[in-house]
Design a protein that fits this description.
This protein has 606 residues and is an alpha+beta fold. The chain has helices at 2-10, 37-43, 52-59, 75-86, 231-241, 286-294, 360-366, 375-387, 463-483, 518-524, 534-557; strands spanning 24-31, 46-49, 95-102, 149-160, 163-167, 172-176, 190-201, 204-209, 214-218, 227-228, 252-263, 266-270, 278-281, 299-310, 314-324, 337-345, 350-352, 356-357, 396-405, 410-420, 425-427, 431-440, 443-446, 450-453, 507-508, 513-515, 570-578, 582-593, 596-602.
């Protein structure tokens, strides 16, 4: 811009020809300042990491829990309640960046049974799953025979790496898909519909789908009481399963106790007191295999659906849970990944914000750990083009990202509004702004006068930092020498016991404003305003702000500010005063020495 102005000044046909030194030019130009509320909100957001106590609440146990969400305990279902509890004073438009862990599998607890499971009612009895009103279960599985074609509408009750157990109103049966089955595509409680044929394998009935499986919803999986098998009852069961021509009428929800023996893909339950029969955990699903492998040698009770037999002594069970006899009270360990998401509050509830938040994996793919002023404008448009390959012209995305601030030498969370022009993503330019340039020694230079905007509101920057600096100045220069205060939170003197606001001049880092309520000032420091009327208190606080506190804070925040030859270097501060209602004012200071500021004017004196 200075080069452009110099050209207009020195060229014979230029519009700025003839201006003398000391002249000022105000230039109007496009800017992305005054961005939408979502951008300002995200930039002022707080952070929250889901705690162990939160996860215990999610899993409804102080012992049977993992420090992560999972397919059956989705983050989106619990984060609104957690944030409502953690931020009871949230205001509409507040934003929070939430950090949490998420596992790709469900942990194994004592699901479907107890440490002392009771005796038996099988699926199809009085405890069948209760569907949601919009989902009507079929009544075909309990009576289906080999060769039958059936239309199944049921609930996924157990999973293995070869299929799942589905229950309808009358019974339960294994849907068998084979080694290509992706068990991660299904969750316990999924409501499914499909057509199938019934066959028999190893004395157990199973379904082979003849149509695609349609997932129509989810519900709570309500298990019946398991049939608890003694050693002798298991021996009788295997003898029955080995009978010529015998076919199980239904899958049996049961509990088998013994020692888990893991060898490769074989997960067997060694039952005490017999060599005639063993339990066999049939092809454990991916979300159980790792945990069961780690349990090799564990003595406990295993609960699930008995669906068939193998060989001459193995009773095949698709496991839903276990109870280890020696298990201590502790969180279950399970592999999980770290995630971040932005939530916003609408005045009554928290919900996921419509903001794209870059992850650590995104930065790693670019070979950086955060953006700077160069990489931001180079990489972010490419990132958006890859993430939204089907974007249409005029599409808008709000993007939150880590940005290295060279001034403070810290990494901050920033947010930008980006628009797609049909070919490329660009940073939105929404407004125009003005900047002042001064002609000094026949050269235009940018007038480095500073405008500081201090928005009112809790924890908003730069208001929080500016007014905390004011409060610190009052503590150090007034409370310590006058009241012998030993701590900024002592409450002795003008600074309150919160340590983030003061009534010497009214600065509040908590509210981001100047509080000029005379009654509040007297309440905090009665001796400082003894015998004064309200208007006298307010006038004194204004004077202190103008001549002591504000210039003191500016000296701390801008110690390198120095006068310039030929122009006045001005600092203009736009701020809000609260005295029962909020009013905006502007105060101006001139730099008169290095780190020294002289009061010029304030609009509250107009």
């Amino acid at each position: 811009m200075p080069a452009y102005l110099n050209n207009l000044h020195t060229t014979s046909s230029g519009s700025l020809i003839g201006l003398s030194n000391g002249s000022y030019v105000k230039v109007t130009y496009e800017t992305s300042e005054n961005a939408p509320a979502v951008v300002a909100g995200v930039c002022a957001s707080q952070s929250y990491a889901v705690s162990e106590a939160d996860y215990q609440t999610v899993w409804e146990s102080e012992t049977d829990y993992v420090t992560a969400f999972s397919p059956s305990k989705k983050a989106s279902s619990y984060l609104p309640k957690i944030l409502k509890s953690q931020f009871p004073d949230a205001q509409s438009g507040d934003y929070v960046v939430v950090s949490y862990n998420e596992a790709g599998q469900d942990p194994i607890f004592n699901a479907g049974g107890s440490d002392e499971p009771g005796g038996g009612e099988e699926p199809g009895g009085g405890d069948e799953p209760t569907p949601t009103p919009s989902f009507e279960m079929s009544s075909v599985l309990g009576s289906a025979a080999a060769g039958d074609a059936v239309d199944v509408a049921g609930v996924v009750m157990a999973k293995c790496s070869r299929g799942f157990v589905v229950s309808d109103k009358t019974g339960s049966m294994l849907y068998y898909a084979g080694s290509s089955f992706d068990d991660t595509a299904y969750s316990i409680g999924d409501q499914v519909k499909f057509s199938a044929t019934v066959s028999v394998y190893n004395t157990g009935k199973q379904l082979t789908a003849t149509t695609d499986i349609e997932k129509v919803g989810t519900q709570s999986a309500s298990y019946p009481s398991p049939k608890v098998y003694t050693t002798s009852e298991l021996e009788a069961l295997i003898a029955e399963l080995l009978g010529e021509g015998y076919v199980m009428p239904d899958a049996i929800y049961a509990t088998i106790s013994g020692t888990l023996s893991v060898s490769g893909n074989y997960f067997n339950i060694i039952v005490d007191g017999t060599e005639a029969v063993q339990g066999s955990l049939y092809w454990p699903s991916s979300d159980m295999k790792e945990q069961l492998t780690a349990m090799n040698g564990t003595v406990g009770s295993f609960t699930g659906y008995i669906t068939s037999k193998s060989g001459s002594k193995y009773v095949n069970m698709i496991v839903t849970g276990y109870s280890a006899a020696s298990r201590s009270s502790r969180a279950v360990e399970i592999a999980s990944d770290a995630h971040e998401v932005i939530y916003t509050y609408n005045g009554s509830a928290w919900s996921a914000a419509d903001v794209t938040l870059l992850s650590s994996e995104d930065y790693a793919s670019m070979g950086i750990k955060d953006f700077n002023s160069t990489t931001l404008f180079t990489y972010l448009p490419i990132y958006l083009k890859n993430k939204f390959p089907y974007a249409q012209a005029d599409d808008v995305e709000y993007v939150a990202y880590k940005l290295y601030d060279s001034a403070s030498k810290t990494t901050i969370l920033n947010c930008s509004e980006c628009t797609f022009d049909g070919a490329e993503w660009k940073f939105a330019i929404r407004n125009t702004a003005k900047a002042q340039f001064a002609l000094v020694k026949n050269e235009f230079i940018f007038d480095p006068s500073v405008v500081i905007n201090l928005p009112a509101g809790k924890n908003l920057e730069p208001s929080k930092t500016f007014f905390q600096t004011c409060t610190d100045w009052v503590y150090e220069n007034v409370d310590v020498p006058q009241f012998a205060s030993s701590s900024i939170t002592s409450g002795v003197g003008y600074v309150t016991s919160y340590g983030n606001n003061e009534y010497y001049s009214g600065c509040s880092a908590y509210q981001g404003n100047v509080d000029l309520r005379a009654a509040s000032a007297r309440k905090q420091c009665a001796s400082g305003y003894e015998g004064m009327e309200d208007d006298e208190v307010v006038a004194l606080m204004k004077k202190r702000f103008e001549s002591e506190v504000c210039p003191g804070a500016l000296s701390k925040l801008y110690p390198d500010a120095a006068p310039m030859d030929g122009i006045d270097l001005l600092y203009t501060i736009n701020f809000v005063v609260y005295n029962g209602s909020s009013t905006s004012y502007s105060i101006v200071y001139k730099v008169v020495g290095k780190g020294q500021f002289e009061f010029v004017s304030c609009t509250w004196n107009d």
